[in-house]
Design goal:
3 helices
Length: 96
């Protein structure tokens, strides 16, 4: 190998490293952007879940306290135990 070949090999290696570094940086940026968006969407879902749980709990409390539906029947419809309905009604009472 002559000096020009060695220099050419060196330049090719530098170019390859630069390309790999650029690709890794881009992949890192894309992964961080995806992570950020995922976290944001999960926070939105948590917020919606809290809102719907509050709505459900308000409905359960109204069914029991105002419409006098037995806790066992509410639990059957809602897919929860009577004890959970009791807990919801009592914790709702404390917040009001």
């Amino acid at each position: 190998m002559n000096a020009n070949d060695i220099e050419l090999q060196k330049l090719l290696e530098e170019a390859r490293e630069s390309t790999e570094e650029h690709t890794n940086k881009r992949e890192l940026e894309e992964a961080l952007k995806y992570l950020s968006e995922s976290i944001s969407q999960l926070n939105n879902i948590k917020s919606l879940e809290r809102q719907w749980l509050d709505n459900r709990n308000t409905a359960i409390a109204k069914l029991y306290k105002e419409l006098h539906i037995p806790m066992i029947k509410i639990g059957e419809v809602a897919g929860m135990t009577r004890q959970m309905v009791f807990h919801i009604c009592n914790s709702k009472e404390k917040r009001d």
